[in-house]
Amino acid sequence: GEEHYNCISALHKSMRGSDENASLYWLARMLEGGEDPLYVARRLVRFASEDIGLADPLALTQAVAAYQGCHFIGMPECEVILAQCVVYFARAPKSIEVYRAYTNVKECLRMHTGPLPPVPLHLRNAPTRLMKNLGYGKGYKYNPAYKEPVEQDYLPEELKGTDFFKERKT
């Protein structure tokens, strides 16, 4: 019932709050109560990117490994795999930078009126002669071929200067 959602919320918030003891408690309460360990593991995968993100990019690897471990061996053996992952996440630094930036991109797309801006010609692939003649790929700078950073626009003209990591585009 509702307690299923209350417990996963408590686990999530305990890890977010870096409380390893409470995190273990809520995990054990769920598993000992019969919760599907793969459900918990799926939530940990989401947590790895949503709450830890780039502060510790290895968190996602930990979460996927925990999911796979649970899938391979099941309960009760997988409980320690989940416990290790939960403690790792509670102790990990947190960052929602990517989560917020992606939310800003989605908001930008939802708020846009009319057709979406076209992909700039220099960013388009030109697999045919006609596409090359139309200017597809013309002027594109292949970054690995340069020793220094390449000055090149990657967003449509209408979004030039937008930084989804710093602002909301409306």
TrEMBL record:
Domain of life where this protein originates = Eukaryota
Which is a Pfam family this sequence falls into? MgsA_C
| Ranges for domain MgsA AAA+ ATPase C-terminal | 17-168
GO MF: ATP binding; DNA binding; enzyme activator activity; single-stranded DNA helicase activity
The entry's cellular-component GO terms read: nucleus
The protein's matches in InterPro entries, at most eight in alphabetical order, are given as:
AAA_ATPase_RarA/MGS1/WRNIP1, DNA_pol3_clamp-load_cplx_C, MgsA_C
Q: What is this protein called?
A: WRIP1 ATPase
* Organism expressing this protein natively: Bucorvus abyssinicus (Northern ground-hornbill)
